[in-house]
Amino acid sequence: MMKSPPPHSSVDLDALWEMPLGLLSFGFSRVLRWTLTNLSRYYSPLNKQETPQWQVVSAEFLAKPIKLLWAMSRARWNLHSLIAIAGPFTVETSLSLNIATISRSTPSWTAVFYTLKDYQTLASISSLSVSGDQEWETVALPPGRYLVGLRHYHWADPVTLPEIRVDGEAALAEKSIAAPPDANRFYRDLIHRQGLIHRGLNGYVYPLLRYRQLLPQQFVRDVFLPVPNPETQFHYGALKRGESLSIQFAPELVATHDIFFSLYNRFCFPLDWYPLRKAQQVTKPLDRKAAFIIRIHPKQPHLPPPTADQVSLEIL
Predict the structure, then answer these.
(1) Which domains does the chain possess?
(2) What is the band of 5 on the pLDDT scale with cuts at 50, 70, 90?
(3) Strand, helix or coil for residue 277
(4) Is the pTM of this model over 0.70?
């Protein structure tokens, strides 16, 4: 349950300019996404690359400005997982992952299979959905070109990225990489690369969340979380300068789920992130407008989703 302070004059004055600029930003973001998607069909190195590779999302991976722009146009940063991308793969019937290898690197993981042409998600598997008795997991797919995105939570160091088979044949060998606990610290430096085009791309996010009560909630969710993990429950919102967030969970929820807090500036550049391990806590007052996401992810399979009375958020 999300509670906000009652409207007052400063909120109304903010809305007078936030909402029109948000509409302009949203239109710009849709045009830019369409442009980047179509350009990538013809000019992406992955389209021309014949030999599949493993790549880890890192400062080096995002070094090129176009790569950072593309990433920020597709999804919200998952700051709590170590993310690796494999591909491209030319598939006729199926892709198979050595999940035993993944399980040795992390107890909690998700693999997403999406098309190279338009980055459409077609399937996913995870530590919650597969059998622990199997060494391999095979996912049936229509003929096409694909990438695999693998998210590791609570990863070991080093991480071994798994072998992948295409249509039953070996396609990509396993790869061991260094993965220190602070492997994602590079996200803190991304804000220094913020430019006008990033402001235009995600300038709509703050008004979308701040005035979400004026919009269909499914629309807000689909726009703000374009590729959410189906096993994760999300809570999100926007905070003004000087505000903080009071967070309360049912004690049993903290015991059965991993709960992660991510804070972004109003243009979706990472500011801070950390796990939430207490039933009650209050975030620090902010020095700027920001957006947040709380991810609630089950530690074990077959757990019921959190109910509304188990989660309470209040803007102070």
Answers:
(1) 2-9+202-315 (no CATH), 42-177 (2.60.120)
(2) very low
(3) coil
(4) yes
